[in-house]
Amino acid sequence: MDETLASSWKQAKQVVRNALAEDLSFGDATTEAIIPPDLEGRASILAKGEGVLAGVEVAKEVFLQVDPSIRFEALVQDGAKGREKDVVATIEGKVASILKAERTALNFLGRLSGIASETARYVEAARGSKARITDTRKTTPGIRLLEKYAVRVGGGKSHRQHLGDAILIKDNHLAALRAQGLGLKQAIERARQGSTLNIEVEVESVDEARQALEACADIIMLDNMAIEDMRKVVELSQGRALIEASGGITLENIRSVAESGVDLISVGALTHSARAMDLSLELEPR
Prior knowledge:
44% of the residues lie in helices and 19% in strands. By secondary structure, the protein is of the alpha/beta class. The chain has a 6-stranded parallel β-sheet. The protein has a 4-stranded antiparallel β-sheet with strand order 3-5-1-12, with helices on one face. Strands 2-4 form a two-stranded antiparallel ribbon. Helix 5 packs across helix 6. The longest helix has 31 residues. The radius of gyration is 23 Å and the shape is elongated.
């Protein structure tokens, strides 16, 4: 578990509580009807494909919140590469408790491992360049903390955790200011007044990037810009600001984007389109 998630573990526990409430607020009709409450058993979580595992401790927290007497042993750690049929963890305790926690635990583990695996693919595709792969705020409502953690497990970096992390002036902010007769430079100047946060501005052309540099923006986001224009902005900046590529980034084009010389590449697909890793739980009643 990295430092960011560890420091926010109280919040992560609440995310787990919310997920369990979604599934168990009205009980588990099937388990309560047919499974003896004192029946003990052992279960294994198995990987059914390859990928980077993330969320093992979150899965453990699910089981412990359902039943603190459950014994959960993680056999792999977050960041490990799982292969088909690998045993990720074993669980021992009351069968009823294991069954009640099963789906929620697998949902978290599968979702987060899918994000970590997708991130690792993007990081590998950009390897050898100076570009760092970052996430966006295109996350599942309510579990951003965990999804961004999974990006870091996969080798990526976190962009803004929330709207208060940094100032990011986007196209709609600029559209609102233009109605008042203000332009990009004035937007950056206004943002700078009374704030010590980094200021990032989204631009759509080399000329807008030049204006942002002249106004001393800290980071310039190139929105859906052609590779050749990215190179021009990198040359123009001469290190005065971090340059971030964003919009339309895929595994097919990320290498070309990275080789343009940008410092950051933000990829919404890391969280909004990652395919969950397939995992299963096999029960061995006693």
